[in-house]
Write a structure and sequence with these properties.
Blueprint (H helix, E strand, L loop, with lengths): L4 E3 L9 H7 L8 E3 L17 H12 L5 H11 L12 E5 L2 E5 L9 H5 L2 H11 L5 E7 L3 H10 L5 E8 L5 H8 L6 E7 L2 H13 L1 H9 L2 E5 L5 H20 L9 E6 L4 H11 L4 E8 L4 H8 L1 E3 L20 H8 L4 H14 L1 E3 L4 H7 E5 L2 H15 L5 H11 L8 E6 L7 H8 L8 H8 L23 E4 L3 H10 L5
Parallel strand pairs: 4-14, 5-6, 5-8, 6-7, 7-15, 9-10, 9-14, 10-13
Antiparallel strand pairs: 1-2, 3-4, 11-12
Helix pairs in contact: 1-5, 2-3, 2-10, 10-11, 16-17, 16-18
Bound molecules: pyridoxal-5'-phosphate (PLP).
Length: about 500
């Protein structure tokens, strides 16, 4: 059967993968979902001999069936190359026989967003060509920190694409801000917003929804698109590392082919863990997917009660990439559990929009066959970082610590091996990490602590942040939340169309 993508809320239209990637989001506000999840027909014991790139081809070719073999292989080769600081791309580190850590932070920006954002720009370039789109594509992104830098890095130097990132000027860490404002590349544009992340996000959504503005851009030869995790082109590459991890476990002799493995995922927008669910449905021997939350535990409450309720205050935690109350990608899971039925999905989303909550009672027991969930607070997280460092000599970041802590608390007595997904390098959050081990570092400057961290981990400071304080600031634009459209105009006015 031919694979196509459609809206999770039922809008008309069947789209090839390349079209769904260009569009980003469906016309009715729904997310693009595959009409059926493909099955990976393969003897999984072969996975242990496959490189990351080879695994990526096996898995992604099932989803991107309007890409030629050559095209997809090109995208993969250009994405997973020496931008990553290890040939393994996503190494699996054993803590003990029962627990391993899948490191997803070896890309250029030290966060798991690189796993998808290093290849999405290649998909877009290819998709643009395939669909004869002549306009230049303008990627607009609002970021709370990690996505912005990964998108800038991924799209820098890509022909026919401009990338514009808005970040809350006072709402990101010093390292994150430096990473963005020092970004090189003629087609990269960065603006600080006088406001918070929600203001930036709302501003971007308003620009996307403004039909007049889209017309104006079109007359100038531009077309808007999105690199946020609602783009199906970000989800597909994330299914790959679940298969790759399984191959590594087989290779190390930790599991036998067919043994079930649990994956524990520090979750925010539900993109990472959803990719794991897709992998399971594609045939990978997965036991439970464990959804790990910080104090913003909307998801962990949801899996317990079947009630999704965002009516609560957002708490700022030491795992900021998980400080989220509306997890957009959950909509894709709802579509799957309701048996590809867009009616209940539309109703749930309407209820979320109008009342801030929805209830999936009838489907809760089904969900529990695939998912577990839990949460920990910041002080538990700090204890986990210190414990793991003392016990295994392994330094993990604050997001990874949430997954570790939740895994430790699981009470189901599962004998399955657990893979903890590590979503950021400890170098990204040096102060929270080091002060968990030694209190004195609480008073240090974040940037200075990067050098101190070198003493705690094997190997040098990753090139992604090395010398970051000496890099030249190239982006100084700051605007009010009402000035975002003008900023876009200004950024584009200086560009020659190709
Ligand atoms: C984005 C991010 C997450 C959350 O991932 P989702 O796919 O949004 O659930 C977790 N940790 C880090 C470090 C991230 O950057």
């Amino acid at each position: 059967m031919k694979l196509y993508y459609k809206s999770s809320r039922g809008a008309d239209g069947e789209f090839a993968a390349s079209q769904a990637i260009i569009r980003g989001i469906a016309e009715d506000g729904g997310l693009f979902v595959p009409n059926a999840l493909p099955e990976l027909k393969m003897d999984f014991s072969e996975l242990k001999y496959k490189s990351y790139g080879e695994t990526a081809y096996e898995v992604m070719s099932l989803f991107l069936d309007d890409f030629e073999e050559e095209e997809l292989k090109n995208c993969i080769a250009n994405a997973y190359d020496d931008k990553f600081d290890t040939e393994e791309i996503a190494p699996l580190v054993m803590l003990d026989d029962g627990v391993s850590v899948l490191e997803l932070f070896h890309g250029p920006t030290l966060a798991f967003k690189d796993m998808a954002l290093s290849i999405l720009p290649r998909f877009m370039q290819m998709a643009k060509k395939k669909n004869n789109i002549e306009e230049d594509i303008v990627i607009l992104t609002a970021t709370s920190g990690d996505t912005g830098k990964a998108a800038l890095e991924g799209f820098a130097g890509i022909d026919g694409v401009e990338i514009i990132v808005f970040f809350p000027e006072k709402g990101v860490s010093p390292v994150q801000k430096l990473q963005m404002v020092t970004q090189e590349g003629e087609n990269t544009h960065v603006a600080g917003i006088r406001g918070n992340f929600d203001d930036a996000q709302t501003g971007v959504k308003m620009i996307f929804g403004d039909k007049e503005y889209a017309k104006k851009l079109k007359s100038k030869g531009y077309r808007l698109s999105s690199a946020n995790s609602i783009n199906i082109g970000r989800l597909i590459p994330q299914t790959v590392y679940y298969f790759y991890a399984y191959g590594q476990l087989l290779k190390k002799g930790i599991v036998q082919n067919g043994d079930l493995v649990d994956f524990v995922v520090p979750t925010g927008n539900f993109g990472n863990i959803l990719a794991g669910y897709y992998a399971k449905r594609m045939g990978l021997p997965v036991g439970h997917l464990v959804c790990a939350s910080n104090e913003n535990k909307v998801l962990s409450d949801f899996f317990e009660s079947g009630n999704y309720d965002k009516n609560r205050l957002l708490t700022k935690t030491q795992s900021p990439s998980m400080d989220i109350l509306v997890s957009s990608n959950l909509e894709r899971l709802l579509y799957e559990i309701s048996g590809n039925n867009e009616e209940p999905v539309s109703e749930w989303m309407k209820s979320l929009d109008e009342k801030g909550f929805y209830n999936v009672d009838a489907f809760l027991s089904g969900l529990k066959e695939d998912f577990e969930a839990g949460w920990i607070n910041d002080s538990d997280g700090r204890r986990c970082i210190a414990d793991v460092y003392r016990k295994y000599g392994y330094l993990m970041d604050t997001h990874t610590a949430v997954a570790y802590g939740v895994n430790e608390r699981r009470t189901n007595g599962s004998k399955r091996h657990s893979v903890i997904l590590s979503t950021a390098s400890p170098y990204k959050f040096p102060k929270s990490v080091l002060s968990s081990i030694e209190k004195k570092y609480e008073d240090w400057e974040e940037i200075d602590l990067m050098e101190v961290m070198e003493e705690f981990v094997e190997g040098e400071i990753p090139t992604g942040v090395k010398d970051i304080r000496n890099r030249k600031v190239l982006h100084e634009h700051v605007c009010g939340k009402d000035g975002m459209k003008e900023a876009v105009d200004e950024f584009l006015s200086g560009r020659d169309l190709k």
